Amino acid sequence: MTSEPTRLVPIPAGEFRMGSAGHYPDEGPVHVRRVEAFQIEDHPVTNRQFAAFVRDTGYVTVAERTLDPEDFPGADPADLVPGAMVFTPTSGPVDLRDWRQWWRWVPGASWRHPLGPEAGVDAERDRPEHPVVQVSFLDAAAYAEWAGRRLPTEAEFEYAARGGLEGARFAWGDDEQPGGRLMVNQWQGRFPYRNDGAAGFVGTSPVGTFPPNGFGLFDVTGNVWEWTTDYYAPRHLPPDVGERAVADGGRPSLLAAASAEPGSRMPRRVLKGGSHLCAPEYCLRYRPAARSPQAEDTAMTHIGFRCASDAVADA
Q1: Under a CB-based contact definition with an 8 Å cutoff, are residues 228 and 269 in contact?
Q2: Domain of 50, in residue numbers
Q3: For residues 9 and 53, what is the distance between their CA atoms, to the nearest angstrom?
Q4: How far from 296 is each of 84, 140, 238, 299, CA to CA, in Å?
Q5: pTM of the full predicted structure?
Q6: Is residue 3 part of a domain?
Q7: Strand 31-35 relative to strand 303-304, pairing
Q8: Mean pLDDT, each 10-residue run in order, the chain (315 residues)
Q9: What are phi and psi of 203, to 5 degrees?
Q10: Residue 195 is inside which H or E element, if any?
Q11: Which ranges of the sequence are coiled-coil (predicted)?
């Protein structure tokens, strides 16, 4: 692996049945979606690659920036320091309806130190070929622009993740572990207090550790959630509404505003693919149809991204 942008894999145009009727409500309705030919990177952007972008541009990620007091009325100014959300295992079984029991805000956590500065993990030095994490949507979009690429739409990501398998439950078929083989980096053990590790990794794994899908793409499910350009809605939107939503006249579009979580002004985008924190009893989302909302400015230890590009015209 190098710090050069990842190899792009051409994905042919086609139609597929997007979504699922058998898991979570926001994956419906199942509908036929057409995707035009495009290209997508064969693995998530790594720490080594993101470090090259930062060195070249001097870019400062959202997690490394000082918080604006106007966005947090009533907060103690001493608490408004750069940082990010870090997964922290509990000491034992807990109510799985309350995610706040295993997520905590850690000052100083960023892509460089994904678990926080006190954890002693330097992403570029210690995990160069792991997917970069603790990156917001804004950070991912900035990298994509630098690389001369873009982020994929939700439909593009799901279509590519399916690898040509129509309606299969997983990216490789319907059997979760064919022949007893673990196919993705997912939680092993009892969530959120005991993780036995996937292929020896607790947390992220180096890109390419697990088998590729039918299109030759690695980690399209499991390992890290990945940003897409679509604004989140609790059900699939028609293609002309849900894809490539843009700001109108410099103001957030109505769709962007509607995507925000109640009580927040920050738009939410669709994450795809699931992550190493997905456990069947809590989050069976290491599937192509799975999706999750995330505020544009939020960085966490299980969110990364990969870039896409329009198809190259034939000479």
Answers
A1: yes
A2: 8-310
A3: 21
A4: 13, 10, 22, 9
A5: 0.93
A6: no
A7: unpaired
A8: 77 97 95 97 98 98 89 75 95 94 96 96 96 98 97 98 95 95 97 95 97 98 97 86 47 78 91 97 96 96 98 66
A9: 105, -150
A10: strand 194-195
A11: none
